[in-house]
Amino acid sequence: MRTQLDTLVTGALQQGSAVPAFTCYDFTTALAVVGAAEESGRGAILLVAPKTAATPNGLRLIAALRGLADAASVPIAVQLDHATDPQVIADVVSAGADSVLVDGSSLPYEDNIALVRNVRAALAAQGRADVVIEAELGGLAGDEDRAFATDAADNAGDAAGNVESDAPAGLTDSAQVEDFVARTGAQLLAVAVGNVHGKYKGEPRLRWDVLQDIAVRTRIPLVLHGASGIPAEELVKAAAMNVGKVNFNTELRTGVLAVLEEQTTAHRADGENLQALLGLWNASARTFAATALATLSR
Ligand SMILES: [Zn+2]
């Protein structure tokens, strides 16, 4: 069943769990995620990248994911990820998404707030005040859609874990959190605490002190992006600090591409057996989603 994203996440947090969100560039992956969620009896989030949404068939993919969510036996939410363009947001919401990450994190602080407020007002004018808004404070290094190694240390203070008084620009400034949440009216808050998009250069090192500081300043659920590569035991710890949603993308793609690379020749020889190859694609994504669901569940 399709579910409001904030309801899904808040419910999970009340049980000490977090909800995994998976970027779906295609329907095969989305089917795998929903299949894994149904098997686990837990909810999940289908994320669509703004670049996907803006392609000629992007809105059809959103509509298809919404159909999938509606028909699922567990709560599923469909969210537009990292959006900044008001027109794309309006179109995607019309096509069936019911939550949006309004990402002004690369903008100056006041402009970030203004972007979220403007999107909220535009959605209300569209008759969609019900759309759940996640906002982001503090910039994440890396590219959401392309996995190049990114140095988390740029965001993570010095080797001893000390923060300079002028903290690196990328890290969420916990002192801004209360004001930001109050003024944006965001229902979820994505944070930068040493997490990166794409692949981690070296060991990922989350700044638990910063996360703790943020967690005590707001009651809305926190969101961790770029979770691919963060060890399971760390993710479990995050759920205890009010991180109710964890976004996965890179590892999912890595697994699918590895399967395709390994199996394409054999399946070409087997009468161009695309159907079987898609089955392996599904199985790879499903195994990854099942592991993430299990890791974040209590
Ligand atoms: Zn992200």
Keywords:
binds zinc ion; two-stranded parallel ribbon; single chain; globular; 11 helices; 298 residues; TIM Barrel; 15% strand; alpha/beta
Brief summary of the model shown:
The protein is α/β, with parallel strands linked by helices and 298 residues long.
Provide an overview of this structure.
There is one protein chain. The protein has 298 residues and is an alpha/beta fold. It has one domain: TIM Barrel, CATH 3.20.20.70. It has helices spanning 5-14, 27-40, 50-53, 58-71, 86-95, 109-125, 177-184, 208-215, 232-239, 250-269, 274-296; strands at 19-23, 44-48, 76-83, 99-102, 132-137, 149-150, 188-191, 199-200, 222-224, 243-248. The strands form 2 sheets. The chain has an 8-stranded parallel beta barrel with strand order 1-2-3-4-5-7-9-10, surrounded by 9 helices. It has a two-stranded parallel ribbon with strand order 6-8. Strand 1 (19-23), helix 2 and strand 2 form a beta-alpha-beta unit. Helix 2 packs parallel to helix 4, helix 2 (27-40) packs across helix 11 (274-296) and helix 10 (250-269) packs antiparallel against helix 11.
Give the strand line-up of the largest sheet. 1-2-3-4-5-7-9-10
Oligomeric form? single chain
> What does the largest sheet look like?
8 strands, parallel, barrel
CATH superfamily: Aldolase class I
Q: Return the domain count.
A: 1
CATH topology: TIM Barrel
Q: What hetero molecules are bound to the protein chains?
A: zinc ion
Query: In sequence order, what are the helices and strands, one letter per element?
Result: HEHEHHEHEHEEHEEHEHEHH
**Cα-atom radius of gyration:** 19 Å
Strand content: 15-25%
In terms of structural class, how would the helical and strand content be classed? alpha/beta
Mean pLDDT figure? 91
Supply the number of helical segments. 11
Termini separation: 21 Å
Please give the CATH architecture. Answer: Alpha-Beta Barrel
Residues in helices, as a percent range: 40-55%
What sort of overall outline do the alpha carbons produce when their principal axes are compared?
Answer: globular
CATH class: Alpha Beta
Q: How many DSSP-defined strands?
A: 10
